[in-house]
Amino acid sequence: MKPLTELSVEMKAFTTAALIFAGLAVLMGLFYLDVSHVGVGGSYVITPHDIAATYYGPGVSVVTLVSLAHIHMLGLFSVFWVIGFIFVHSSFPPGWKIFWSVLPFGAFLVDVSGWFLTKIAVVYVYVVIVGGGLFALGLAVMILLSLYDMWLTPAKKVPKAVSART
Prior knowledge:
By secondary structure, the chain is mainly alpha-helical. It contains five helices and no strands.
């Protein structure tokens, strides 16, 4: 894939649609998280207590957690990879590209680990929150920076080759 700044208008439109669709899919997942957890711990807005009530003790079985982890990891792999693949073709510095493209993978492993740890001790609910927040942040940053780079950063002009006279 070419650098984002050098894509044709057709590829920019296609890539933009993919980024927006993936971003909306993640937002829908976060919305589902909110509506499915709200009130679990007795409140009307989602709180750490609501999340802990889902995972701690008899909230859900280990078998269910393994199944959920499996489904989420397989599904989010493609989202992380597509968004990361697009982002690494941006014109941002290599260090930024490495950090932001790898962050969602590591953060989601932290999130999932927190599910299992919260089953043992409620205090680990904050591991779930930090992991989930970081993977969502990573995706948002990559989507927004990719869109910025694609549509607002001017393409680098390649100097014309000088013909050699003999």
